[in-house]
Amino acid sequence: MYEGASRIGGHTNTVSVPTANGSAAVDTGFIVYNEAAYPNLTALFAHLGVATRPSEMSFAVSLADGALEYSGTNLNALFAQRRNLARPRFWSMLRDIRRFYRDAPVAAADLDDSVTLGRFLADGAYGAAFRDDHLLPIAAAIWSAPAQTLLDYPARAFIAFCANHDLLQMTSRPAWRTVVGGSSMYLARLTDTFAHRIKTGCAVTGLSRSRSTVTVRDSEGGSTDFDHVVLACHADEALALLSDADEGETRLLGAFAYSRNEAVLHSDARLLTR
């Protein structure tokens, strides 16, 4: 197994953070899962004997430097700013939330991928309050992407994702779980039997195929033949590695676009919702 980075795991990344009560294992990539949406991962954890526990999966919004804030935890959190009770815009948002949750999954069945989320919201006469104060903040948090770019996302795919994760319902949402001790715990168990065959800090620089073998060239100058190779990387990286990509591979692997997202792990409470 070749890994160009100094560690394995990709976005499964646990950081040990010092606190007043000792170190805390904080996950910065893979954080939570639910058993209904992730049956294969659930089965993998059971197979490996990975301990998990219930976790909170909450959502809060803070806009315009705290001018508008609310959380979806309960009614008290929803109206944490009591002035929201007297805001017509806030009530408009709540009405559209209820309508979107009810109508969007049904409407999505008749959409094709040319219909963007922005067009779907406009055609459905959803208000700016629902779009800017609720839906785009949720989407930006889930996909770690600038909110406005998500208006160009296919509406059908967006709605399907939300429905698959039971996000389009007011009650009976799924129970989320997290790995005890951080996600690095399952990495250790997953790789235990072949850890001696993992080459970290050694990137694959190219692949070439013959009738019976695949030749792998690496950043250390090595060249090794294998019967089969699995590329566990992004599509654009996979395409760049294939010296003999055919038309189908080029079309499929070249269809993906990527953006770079930066995350900051911090303990500054001033950046939290008030």
Compact description:
33% of the residues lie in helices and 18% in strands.
Provide the gyration radius in Å. 23 Å
Q: Output the number of helix runs.
A: 9
Mean pLDDT: 91
Q: Which strand order spans the largest sheet, edge to edge or round the barrel?
A: 4-8-5
What order do the SSEs take from the amino end to the carboxyl end, as H and E? EEEEHEEEHHHHHEHEEEEHH
Q: Major β-sheet, in short?
A: 3 strands, antiparallel
Can you give a write-up of this model?
- The chain is of the alpha+beta class and 274 residues long.
- The strands form 5 sheets. Strands 4-8-5 form a 3-stranded antiparallel β-sheet, covered by helices on one side. A 3-stranded antiparallel β-sheet has the order 10-11-12, with no helix packed on it. Strands 1-9 form a two-stranded parallel ribbon.
- A hairpin with a 2-residue loop joins strand 2 and strand 3.
- Helix 3 crosses helix 5 and helix 8 packs antiparallel against helix 9.
- The protein starts with a strand and ends in a 21-residue tail after the last helix.
- The mean pLDDT is 91.
Which key phrases capture this entry?
274 residues; alpha+beta; 3-stranded antiparallel β-sheet; 9 helices; 12 strands; globular
Q: Would you spell out the secondary-structure blueprint of this structure?
A:
Elements: E1 2-3, E2 14-19, E3 22-27, E4 33-34, H1 39-48, E5 52-55, E6 60-63, E7 68-71, H2 75-78, H3 88-108, H4 117-123, H5 128-143, H6 155-164, E8 176-179, H7 184-191, E9 199-200, E10 204-209, E11 214-218, E12 223-226, H8 235-241, H9 247-253
Parallel strand pairs: 1-9
Antiparallel strand pairs: 2-3, 4-8, 5-8, 6-7, 10-11, 11-12
Helix pairs in contact: 3-5, 8-9
